[in-house]
Specification:
The protein is α/β, with parallel strands linked by helices. The protein has one domain: Glycosidases (TIM Barrel, Alpha-Beta Barrel), CATH 3.20.20.80. Helix content is about 35%, strand content about 20%. The chain contains 14 helices and 12 strands. An 8-stranded parallel β-barrel has the order 3-4-5-6-7-8-10-11, surrounded by 5 helices. Strands 1-2 form a two-stranded antiparallel ribbon. α11 runs parallel beside α12.
């Protein structure tokens, strides 16, 4: 087994040791770094180029040597109205995910009438800034349009019609962004929580049966054969009954030839709960199935006010997940669920909690951001990386 470089950043209440990749002594030889560009990057790519070899570089620059996409969920209202937010999003990230505007209720609030504008704006922003897009999400039991949920509830939409509606929705959305969206969360949060997870009792499971996941993957693949197709969920970062349920489902789908290409681990962490220190082992078992993996919605919340211990815990939590990704050859992307506390979803969703992102409300980098920089800058570059 290869030696691992072990790095310690900050102090964790539960300890802060985490592996970040093969040591320089055991890693495959690497070619010399290319010379620094003679001219600054294009506008929108982060301004003047930093000095070569420094740690204080944008995350996308530091992640590029690993072939890793580093992404953020995007609030399109902030993107349109906040120039500082827009500049940071362009500078720091090589991938973007729509926080809300690609969800069904946003895309088709009225049956048959699609509202493409906000999603198209995000796609164009990504194109201008050389960013790849992770589509979120095609099927989820939340944020569904009222016409759909009401129709199922009152019986005016039966199982046969729902199947037709779902197929049409997936086909229409994926075809529109064919060749523009790298990957999709095809089904989001399909399993229940607890010690004995089962497929969640959604309108899709109830009316279409347990094979709705396989069908959704097939329909998405038919609409864009080159897009990578993911299942995505929370509380599966470590090895536990829920992540094992996904592992068993993935094995079954792969054995059946269903076009499943990856698993998304949301990574919503809370300092009051144990850190998933077995995340590397968890990702490794999906990697061995030939699947891509990605951390898709990472944030680390805690009860306010902030203090140095909570900041240190947050640093270690972010870095534990990033390190797990770097240790996994097919882990292609590490995405934070919003990069600034200015627009974070956490305070509205979790009373008394917040400060969950790498940048503060003034868009200034926090210790968590510096920790991510350090891990990316100091981790060895394994051979045969992921090539995001």
């Amino acid at each position: 087994m290869k030696k691992l470089r072990i790095v310690m950043v900050g102090v964790l209440t539960a300890g802060a040791l985490y592996a970040v990749g093969p040591s320089a002594a055991t890693a495959a030889p690497q070619p010399p770094a290319p010379p620094a560009p003679a001219t600054p990057p294009k506008p929108g790519h982060g301004g003047p180029a930093p000095a070569p070899g420094t740690i204080d570089q944008p995350l996308r620059v530091l992640a590029a040597k690993h072939g890793l996409g580093v992404g953020t969920a995007i609030d399109v209202n902030a993107l349109a109205n906040d120039a500082a937010y827009r500049e940071r999003a362009a500078r720091e990230f090589s991938a973007v995910t729509a926080e809300n505007v690609m969800k069904w209720e946003s895309l088709e609030p009225v049956r048959g009438q699609y509202n493409w504008g906000p999603a198209d704006e995000l796609v164009e922003f990504a194109r201008r800034n050389g960013q790849k897009i992770h589509g979120h999400t095609l099927l989820w039991h939340n944020q569904l349009p009222g016409w759909l949920t009401q129709g199922v509830a009152d019986g005016s939409i039966d199982s046969a019609e729902l199947r037709s509606i779902v197929k049409n929705h997936i086909t229409t959305v994926v075809k529109r962004y064919r060749g523009k969206v790298r990957s999709w969360d095809v089904v989001n949060e399909a399993f229940t929580d607890g010690d004995n997870p089962v497929l969640r009792d959604t309108i899709f499971r109830r009316l279409l049966g347990p094979d709705y996941i396989a069908d959704a993957l097939r329909w998405a693949h038919a609409a864009d054969p080159k897009a990578k197709l993911f299942l995505n969920d929370y509380a599966i970062d470590g090895i536990n009954p829920k992540s094992t349920a996904y592992y068993e489902l993935a094995k079954t789908l792969r054995r059946q030839g269903v076009p499943l290409h990856g698993i998304g681990f949301q990574g919503h962490l809370d300092l009051q709960y144990p850190l998933p220190i077995d995340a590397p082992q968890n990702l490794a078992r999906f990697d061995q199935l030939g699947l891509e993996t990605a951390f898709t919605e990472v944030d680390v919340r805690y009860f306010l006010p902030t203090d140095t211990y909570k900041e240190a815990g947050q640093v270690g939590s972010f870095n534990t997940l990033l390190s797990a990704c770097l240790l996994t050859p097919r882990c292609v992307m590490f995405t934070v669920w919003g990069f600034t506390d200015r627009y974070s979803w956490v305070p509205d969703a979790f009373s008394g909690q917040g400060a969950a992102t790498p940048f503060d409300e003034n868009l200034a980098p926090k210790a968590a951001y510096r920790g991510l920089q350090q891990v990316l800058a100091t981790a060895s570059v394994p051979h045969g990386r992921r090539g995001f």
